[in-house]
Each structure stands twice: as C-alpha cells, then as structure tokens.
Write a structure and sequence with these properties.
single chain, 201 residues, alpha+beta, Ribosomal Protein S4 Delta 41, Chain A, domain 1, Structural Genomics Hypothetical 15.5 Kd Protein In mrcA-pckA Intergenic Region, Chain A, 2 domains, 5-stranded antiparallel sheet, 5 strands, Ribosomal_uS4_bac-type, structural constituent of ribosome
C-alpha cells in the first residue's frame, strides 16, 4: 500500500474522530462515509476491531505497514510494555517531533519539511522523516529556512508547554527532545493493546 493521499476527512469519518486535527466535515457528518454510512451498524468482529485500531495508528502517524510492523517487532524485543513502547517509538520519529514542537501544523506538513531539508538535528540536515531521535538531541529549523511563512504561521500561538517531553527555544527556533513520553502524556486516542493482540495472533 502506498501512502494515502486522498481526502483526510473521509478517513477521519471512518474512525469517527479527528485523527488529522480539527475537522469541519467531521463535526457536520459524524458518521462513516459511503452510501451505507448512516445505515444500520453491523457488529464488528474482534479481529475487525483490532485491525481498525492498527489502521487508525498508521494513519495518525503516517506510517506504512512495513515500517509499522518493523517498529512493532522492535518494541516487542524491548523492555517494557510492548504497546506503550510502540507508541514511544512512533513519538520519537523526527516528523512527529517536528509536529509536536509546532514547527508544522500537521504530521504530513512536518514530513514534507523534513524531506525538503528544512530541518536540522544537532546542527546537521536530516531529511529522513522516520529518523529516530534520542533523548537530548536538538531539533531546529535550518538557517536558510527560518523565514519560511509556513513555519512562522505554524509557530504563531502554538502552546509549547503542551508536551512535557519536548522543550522549545523561540529565539533559536530549535527544540530539545528531552525523553521518551509516558503513555499518560501521549494524547492520541489509540488502544495499543488491541494492536499487540492483533500482531500476536
């Protein structure tokens, strides 16, 4: 499966929640898309519920199946609760941290900024969105890119105290990845245990 580039509201409606951020369409049409969206709901199987949760996590973080599976296997080999470790790995991706720091309004926009070489890690340009950050690393906007309107617009009015595992320095337009987040601090509505159950079959 290639990366989804279709209407995001359609995906948000499928899951019944704004997984890509505030969504006007979802507030008006809070039912699944398609001609049967408003019809009688049939009971979803246990497998269907688990698969839906995995798809929601993949769409939320913009990760494809192979990458997601690799991250899961890495989480399963790590110490700690597999589901929580998986979410921590997803949160430590460079594109996600650029989004969490408020440099980009969405994860898709963050991925584009990274790919287009606008982001530096510890002073060096990194153009791999899936790059895994380590605690203590500094993520900043490249000197040439500091005047980009899209970055200024994203940073304007952004609440930088929202996420306790990152800190932001406005004067240098750089942020620090302090530590892996605790599960309670990750705001995404993902039931990671269902993903673990799905892959453990």
């Amino acid at each position: 499966m290639a990366r989804y580039t279709g209407p995001k509201s359609k995906i948000a409606r499928k899951f019944g929640e704004p997984i890509f951020g505030p969504d006007k369409v979802l507030s008006k049409k809070n039912y699944p898309p398609g001609q049967h969206g408003n019809g009688r709901k049939k009971k979803t199987s246990e497998y269907g519920i688990q698969l839906r949760e995995k798809q929601k996590a993949k769409y939320t973080y913009g990760v494809l199946e192979k990458q997601f599976r690799n991250l899961f296997e890495k989480a399963a080999r790590s110490r700690g609760i597999t589901g929580e470790v998986l979410l921590q790995f997803l949160e430590a991706r460079l594109d996600n941290v650029v989004y969490r720091l408020g440099i980009a309004p969405t994860r898709a926009a963050a991925r584009q900024l990274v790919s287009h070489r606008h982001i530096v890690v510890d002073g060096k340009v990194v153009n791999i969105p899936s790059y895994t950050l380590k605690p203590g690393q500094v993520i900043g906007v490249r000197e040439k890119s500091k005047s980009l309107e899209v970055i200024d617009n994203a940073l304007a009015g952004f609440n930088h105290s929202k996420y306790p595992w990152v800190e932001w320095d406005q004067s240098s337009k750089a942020g620090k990845f302090l530590h892996l987040p605790e599960r309670a601090d990750i705001p995404e509505n993902i039931k990671e245990q269902l993903i673990v159950e799905l892959y453990s079959k």
